[in-house]
Amino acid sequence: EAQVTQNPRYLITVTGKKLTVTCSQNMNHEYMSWYRQDPGLGLRQIYYSMNVEVTDKGDVPEGYKVSRKEKRNFPLILESPSPNQTSLYFCASSDLAGGFGEQFFGPGTRLTVL
Amino acid sequence: AQKVTQAQTEISVVEKEDVTLDCVYETRDTTYYLFWYKQPPSGELVFLIRRNSFDEQNEISGRYSWNFQKSTSSFNFTITASQVVDSAVYFCALRGGYSTLTFGKGTMLLVSP
């Protein structure tokens, strides 16, 4: 089944404790991206990747890192999480180069930073 | 910078009513793509439609239809004969050039029986 998977689905952590949210897709898509969803703000793009080893900042990249060493994986790293990073996070991949196609979203990761 | 405005924060209708969700966008790009996504109460994001800037034809898919008007920078979404299962948050999004994908803040649609 074609899908985007994220782990963990739920995470409660404390300020400053490094964490990684994994994202994997099995559709051989070149474009992948991360979004955060906050009440009243919609979805905002954090980082995106056009292809392996090519990443770029989205609209809200502060406090996040990403890497794209393999086509299928695009982990999101919070090196020193803070409470304002409490949010619902979605990973997505796109079926067209450059991200112009439909975004296939993962199920979401709900992160709480205390 | 590009921008997507969904002025309707929340809409409530009764089943079988028609409802239109508004989306107004801003971009300096001549080539761009517009999208609509649905987020039901279960939380997943579901793709509904993609439209490029050169294709102003309206689209109909069952009870769903979309009206794209470049002259007013709008890409409105109409649900005909709404059903309870249409209750969800609907997002309009814009992808212009090699920029980020920008979402509107969403419109929550509540369809009551």
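qc> The first strand of chain A starts at residue 4 and ends at 7.
qc> done
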